Amino acid sequence: MARAAVVCGLGTHLPSRVVGNDHLARELDTSDEWIRSRTGIGQRHLADPGQATSDLAVEAGQRALKSASSGAGQDGADAVVLATTTPDHPCPATAPLVASRLGLGTVPAFDVAAVCTGFLYGLAAGAGLIATGTADSVLVVGAETYSSILDPADRSTRAIFGDGAGAVVLRAGEPDEPGALGPMVLGSDGTGSELIQVPSGGSRDPFRAENADRADPFFRMTGRQVFRNAVERMAEAVTEAAARAGWRPEGVDVLVAHQANVRIIQAVADQLGLPRERFPVHLDRVGNTSAASIPLALADAVTAGALRPGHKTALAAFGGGLTWGAVTMTWPQVAPA
Amino acid sequence: MSDTYERLVQLLVKNFGFDTDEVAREDTFSKLELDSLALVELTLAVQQEFKIKLTDDDLDANDTMEQAVKVIESKPVVA
């Protein structure tokens, strides 16, 4: 029997600075009503100047390790996988720095780049490390400082995105125990790569003196096409992940979807024919935190009592790439630290 | 007599909070104040209700309800 990856710890961190919609409305042509009606977002947390993705990741990682230690007696981790769109530097990866700062020594550590689907891709990578015996435990972190890549003048992205971090600890275990990740469904479609993109600063359009006047270093998103793709891909992925786990889609008690837009979450619920109440909403308080959104929403749902041990739980995400994914598990006895 | 129009109206009632008598056959989606995201949501709801496949452009803000009914009825039902 293959070794399963079992969730045994959960931790989050949000930077302390809270920016409400009214604050944005003072700088941009927008309003609280406009943002709430289109996205469901009321406020977001933003990193302070000088605060980088690794700073948020270390805080969330520490708490996840503490949660695993106090709940499951799992101390430390044999590997670190960090999902992020906003690494501290284009090179090297941020995960080794996070591992060192967490006191995990010289463990394998690498970044995963799958934008808003990053946390699920990170879980898949972590589960793979466990399945192959490379590690017996893995810290999987989703951490973002989108405020560092948003165009100050772009009301559509500034209204949506926030900063934050969330992490889980995976340990080797049995496929039938609570917290064991079910078969993962992951997908990508590079024909849509321009729909969610930072146009410049990579090898296609490096920053050089000669393109300084036209280079675009900011995150861009084409909302309408992304919306439809997100709904259809997440609904399909959940249906498939549930089927592979031997569940009927309507048997899912709680579905924690990537917190991009409340209207996307509701549309996914409608497509699946599931009551919207089964979809926890956290984005009203933190916005879209990309790779951090699923662990942040998990912790919020546990704290609120909406997600309890024994719940048949599905996670679903969609993001730039395009990428998407879903996975199932029975929620274990895990509380955020 | 097909009931496509009535079913389309019901989708607007259910998804966007309209009253049945607030919608008329000659109303365009923009007159009904459906923004671009709402049209995407309606596209997804129509696909599910009528078991058809729509492109991103099949429902246009300037289309009337009557025109949308014709578009819906022109599409083959998929499993």
The overall strand count of chain B is 0
Return the CATH architecture of the largest domain in chain A: 3-Layer(aba) Sandwich
Low-confidence stretches of chain B: none
Percent of residues of chain B in helical segments? 40-55%
Structural class of chain B: mainly alpha
Domain module count of chain B: 1
Provide the spatial order of strands within the biggest beta sheet of chain A: 1-7-6-4-5
What is the terminal separation of chain B in angstroms? 23 Å
Strand content of chain B: under 5%
Largest interface: A-B, 12 and 11 residues
Write out the CATH superfamily name of the largest domain in chain A: Thiolase/Chalcone synthase
Rg of chain A (CA only): 19 Å
Q: Structurally, how many domains make up the residues of chain A? A: 2
Question: For this structure, what is the CATH homologous superfamily of chain B?
Answer: ACP-like
Question: Oligomeric status of the shown chains?
Answer: heterodimer
Describe this structure in words.
The complex is a heterodimer of chains A (337) and B (79). Chain A has 337 residues and is of the alpha/beta class. Chain A has two domains: 4-173, Peroxisomal Thiolase, Chain A, domain 1; 185-330, Thiolase/Chalcone synthase (Peroxisomal Thiolase, Chain A, domain 1, 3-Layer(aba) Sandwich), CATH 3.40.47. Helices cover 33% and strands 22% of the residues of chain A. Chain A contains ten helices and 13 strands. Chain A has helices at residues 21-27, 32-39, 53-72, 95-101, 118-131, 155-160, 223-244, 262-272, 283-286, 293-304, and strands at 4-13, 17-20, 43-46, 79-83, 109-112, 137-144, 164-173, 185-188, 196-197, 220-221, 254-257, 312-319, 323-330. A five-stranded mixed β-sheet of chain A has the order 1-7-6-4-5, sandwiched between helices. A four-stranded mixed β-sheet of chain A has the order 8-13-12-11, with helices on both faces. The longest helix of chain A is centred in the last third of the chain and has 22 residues, at 223-244. The radius of gyration of chain A is 19 Å and the shape is globular. With 79 residues, chain B is mainly alpha-helical. Chain B has one domain: ACP-like (Non-ribosomal Peptide Synthetase Peptidyl Carrier Protein, Chain A), CATH 1.10.1200. Helices cover 48% and strands 0% of the residues of chain B. Chain B has helices at residues 4-16, 36-50, 65-74. Chain A binds chain B through residues 38, 223-225, 227-228, 231-232, 263, 267, 270-271, and chain B through 15, 35-37, 40-41, 43-45, 48, 56.
